[in-house]
Design goal:
407 residues; alpha+beta; Beta-Lactamase; Helix Hairpins; Heat Shock Protein 90; 11 helices; 13 strands; 21% strand; elongated
């Protein structure tokens, strides 16, 4: 039965519908695979079901199955009459799913492209071509009653003997994609900024030494080479942070646990900062309990956490840096506090996110605290930020003692 649209779709912007982006038949270049949300969904487009239902019909059981999909899915027949409007789609559009069944898709889901053309009308040519299987993901705007909203939309055509029987739309909110793209842009900008300074220094000093080696004293040469070495270490640390972030985001943190003494690890970190000239010994106040439990931890990862926390206190804090290591009933606890301005309470929840650098934009990558939190949580511990007694920021993390697992 042919469905007649009582109200023609309204064109936005007064422009004629443009050509449709279509995909060829399966196996041809440019063909679109089924959307992940609809690939494993029930087949509602068979020619007939066991009860002899016509092609393109959807049973109550199969329609209910679509509600379990995380993506918004809308199914229509060849004429655009809505057959399925799953729960995710109803939530996105803020409509009652039961009220849209049997209505035309342009009434309940008015989508327009970047030129303001009505999507359903503009895709007419593709729906008529037997070899067209769908449309690749594209950005379309939902012209809602109160506000417009952008979605990434994938379309799949189901045909029976070359005749269109069903149209499936999968809609995803663009917010998550935009967030990923924004994070990617931040990462590129951060890497470019952080690499430019040390690489410029390395290039400058090495070029100068090569061109005028005989003119410099041994002391001057040593100073330049030490600067090159320090900048090379800075680049190495940045690349290490980027690799760590990649593993964290992929859920591939690997811990090589062993019995370790946290006192030894902490002492090594602080002595390293003094030896590298990052701070004088007088800037550190250290309190360590006499009796500490043996810890089943990855010493390299915990050393990295301590490096990040101490660097953060030295870079962003002021005055002395107080480090406390004490034993607890379940393991050990470490706090690193400075005497700077501290972290505003409103920003406490953002401190451990990627690229957060507070007021000191451009100083550091904004990845150190994000990595520290991930490594502590991988050990089964916790880390928080609060107000230090001296008025600055205090980072405190607790680790369970743990034990080797045999067998």
């Amino acid at each position: 039965m042919t469905h007649t649209v009582t109200s023609a779709p309204t064109r936005v912007g007064g422009q004629a519908a443009g050509p449709e982006d279509v995909t060829g038949s399966a196996g041809e270049p440019g063909s679109a695979d089924a959307s992940p949300a609809t690939a494993g969904a029930p087949d509602a487009a068979a020619a007939t079901d066991s009860s002899g239902a016509p092609a393109g019909s959807v049973t109550a059981a199969s329609a209910t199955a679509y509600d379990g999909l995380p993506d918004a899915v809308v199914l229509t027949d060849a004429d655009g009459v809505v057959l399925v409007f799953n729960a995710a789609a109803a939530n996105l559009m803020d409509v009652d799913a039961g009220s849209v069944s049997g209505r035309h898709v342009t009434e309940v889901l008015p989508l327009v492209d970047e030129r303001g053309n009505d999507w359903w009308e503009a895709s007419t040519a593709g729906r008529r071509l037997p070899r067209v299987t769908g449309q690749p993901e594209r950005r379309l705007t939902y012209a809602g009653p109160t506000r417009d909203h952008d979605f990434n939309v994938t379309v799949r055509y189901t045909r029976q003997a070359g005749r269109l029987v069903q149209v499936a739309l999968c809609l995803r909110d663009t917010a998550s994609r935009e967030r990923i793209e924004r994070n990617r842009s931040d990462l590129v900008a951060t890497v470019a900024h952080e690499l430019r300074s040390p690489l410029t220094s390395v290039k400058g000093f090495t070029a100068t030494l090569l061109a005028k080696w005989e003119r410099f004293t041994d002391e001057q040469k040593k100073l330049m080479l030490n600067t090159v070495n320090t900048d090379a270490d800075r680049v190495t640390r940045l690349l290490t942070e980027l690799l760590d972030v990649s593993r964290i985001d992929a859920g591939r943190i690997q811990l090589r646990k062993q019995i370790a003494d946290p006192k030894v690890i902490l002492t090594r970190v602080l002595q390293g900062k003094v030896a590298a000239g990052a701070a004088g010994a007088e800037r550190f106040i250290v309190h360590i309990d006499d009796e500490l439990p043996e810890m089943w931890i990855d010493p390299d990862k915990i050393e990295q956490v301590l490096h990040n926390l101490v660097d953060n206190a030295l870079r962003h804090g002021a005055g002395t840096v107080t480090v406390v290591l004490r034993g607890t009933e379940t393991g050990a606890e470490v706090s690193v506090a400075d005497e700077g301005d501290g972290v505003p309470e409103a920003n406490a929840g953002r401190v451990f996110t990627k690229f957060w650098r507070g007021a000191s934009r451009g100083n550091g990558t904004g990845l150190g605290l994000y990595i520290a939190k991930a490594l502590i949580e991988a050990h089964g511990g916790t880390i928080v930020v609060g107000r230090a007694p001296g008025g600055g920021a205090e980072f405190r993390f607790a680790l369970p003692a743990g034990a080797p697992v045999f067998g």
